[in-house]
Design goal:
Blueprint (H helix, E strand, L loop, with lengths): L20 H20 L4 H16 L2 H14 L4 H21 L5 H14 L3 H10 L4 H18 L3 H17 L6 E4 L6 H10 L8 H7 L4 E7 L9 E8 L6 H6 L11 E9 L9 H16 L5 E4 L6 H12 L5 H6 L14 H10 L8 H10 L9 H20 L2 E2 L2 E2 L2 H7 L4 E6 L6 H7 L3 E5 L5 H11 L6 H6 L9
Parallel strand pairs: 4-5
Antiparallel strand pairs: 1-2, 2-3, 3-4, 6-7, 8-9
GO molecular function: malonyl-CoA decarboxylase activity
Protein name: Malonyl-CoA decarboxylase
Pfam families: MCD, MCD_N
Length: 495
């Protein structure tokens, strides 16, 4: 049986049904009244109809009016703080009276007040969301609405918007309980509409054509995803796995699959891509649940597999490194300085060790009046990154970049968590950083993001809970001795 994916797109289809600005504004006015009617009404047939109408009308709004609705929900449909204050005082008085009299006659009143407080602390917007979630298609609507809300937060990071986002996230986390998630193994026999979603939403290593897709679903490969019964035909998240004899460091070797490992000889499950399909589910830990579930399935299906690791990109390395090189370079040109003037101001730091700086200066003797940092900046920003692949510079630039990358992954933190988002994801799930791979991704994207370096995270099943505890409680990122050794500069010689 073959799969026909004619007309495959690399982008999601445009939203349909959006009205022009004037009509959208009229719909917005109508929605304000609908919101109030839904909240005031008890759960009945008429309120159900209003909820459905609200969802349909919301999808017709342009982005500006969607943001107006979200602003309305965040600012006008919260809690009654005066009521909360009165109930809190009433509860405090009851507790005080019970303590003084040492009698339990006030206990029923305490329970009633506690119940009233819980109700008062529930924002009106949450009541609306819960009613929407009870309707067919309601979960998908809330996911889409949260995606719009997160766009609004990117533009206006206000406390009211963040709180509304927290409320929506909590509702979605409850709706997406692990018991309700359905694990699916994708195959070439799946409907074309579902396979098209894999092509559209593959976020790490784009699927180039049908042959590439078929290869990723073939032997020596697995692709698993989560579905939810309320979102039929919509994979929420999916992960791609290569079955290999050992931990692989180069993503091009995995994607090309020129020397596949027979499945009965595979001892390693290499997770090389994980992609979410729903922006509205950002921050909900479906990835952790999926990895854990897939590990269990593979252990049961293939007992010979003893190693579970990833082959991961380092998307933030160059954006972290280049501004620091620029800030340390005393001969940085005024035009380049102007390009970086919008960046956050950075304190000067000794990014390169003295030995590394000498090696760079000796390897580029023709670069007069330039600092070592300026030389390195030029190497890393040269068009198409050809210089970084030059054999004459390998002996100098490779150990420097590997050391700086190890520092970035292990030591650079924000609020006690790893600065790199991929590192934070895996280490909070119990992985350790196993090794760095030089030229592990020599695609244009890989060179731009991380100078071609990739990283393997390893899930050692007997250490997962210990690693999670060390990270969440102490901020310690577990790593192999190789990573720790990279933090110290090595002796280098120009190529």
């Amino acid at each position: 049986m073959s799969c026909n994916l004619e007309g495959l797109n690399s982008q999601p289809p445009p939203q349909e049904g959006t009205l022009e600005s004037g009509s959208s504004t009229r719909i917005f006015d109508k929605l304000q009244a609908t919101i109030q009617n839904i909240i005031n009404a008890r759960a009945n047939a008429s309120s159900d109809i209003a909820v459905c109408q609200f969802s349909n009308d919301y999808y017709k709004l342009d982005q500006s009016n969607k943001h107006r609705i979200l602003t309305l929900l965040a600012t006008k449909y919260g809690v009654n703080r005066t009521n909360i204050q009165n109930l809190s005082q009433q509860y405090s008085d009851l507790c005080k009276a019970e303590k003084e009299t040492k009698e339990e006659k006030n206990t029923p009143a305490l329970y009633r007040t506690e119940h009233s407080l819980r109700s008062a602390l529930t924002p009106l917007s949450v009541q609306l969301f819960k009613q929407i979630n009870c309707q067919p298609g309601g979960l998908k609507f809330l996911v889409d609405m949260r995606a719009d809300l997160r766009m609004l937060i990117e533009d206006q990071n206000l406390p009211a918007f963040r709180y509304l986002d927290t409320c929506l996230k909590e509702i979605l986390e409850t709706a997406l309980s692990p018991a309700l998630l359905e694990l699916h193994l994708f195959t070439w026999e799946d409907p074309a509409a579902i396979l098209e979603k894999l092509v559209i939403f593959e976020a790490v290593h784009p699927i180039s054509n049908l042959y590439d897709l078929k290869r990723r679903l073939g032997s020596e490969r697995r692709c698993f995803g989560y579905f939810h019964p309320s979102l039929p035909g919509e994979p929420l998240i999916f992960i791609e796995v290569a079955l290999t004899r050992s931990i692989v460091g180069c993503i091009q070797d995995v994607l090309r699959n020129e020397s596949p490992t027979p499945e009965d000889e595979a001892t390693t499950a290499l997770f090389y891509s994980i992609s979410s399909t729903q922006p509205g589910l950002t921050g909900i830990s479906l990835g952790k649940l999926l990895i854990k579930r897939v590990v269990g399935v593979l252990q049961q299906e293939m007992p010979k597999i003893m190693t579970f690791a990833t082959l991961s990109p380092i998307p933030g390395f160059m954006s972290w490194l280049l501004p620091r090189l620029a800030s340390e370079s005393q001969s940085f040109s005024s035009s380049r300085m102007q390009q970086d003037s919008e960046r956050k101001s950075l304190f000067k730091e000794n990014l390169l060790h003295a030995q590394e700086a000498r090696s760079l200066l000796e390897s580029c003797r023709t670069a007069e009046n330039q600092t070592a940092e300026n030389i390195m900046w030029n190497i890393l920003t040269f068009p198409r990154k050809e210089l970084i692949r030059s054999e004459s510079l390998q002996g100098v630039i490779k150990p420097i970049l590997l050391r700086l990358c190890a520092r970035y992954l292990l030591l650079e933190k924000r609020r006690g968590k790893a600065l790199d988002v991929v590192t934070n994801f895996h280490v909070q799930n119990g992985a350790l950083i196993e090794r760095l791979n030089w030229m592990g991704d020599f695609s244009e994207r890989g060179l731009n993001q991380s100078a071609g370096i990739t990283v393997n995270y390893c899930y050692r099943l007997d250490k997962i809970e210990e690693n999670i505890g060390n990270y969440l409680e102490k901020g310690i990122i577990s790593s192999s001795s190789m990573l720790k050794d990279l933090l110290e500069p090595k002796s280098m010689s120009p190529g």
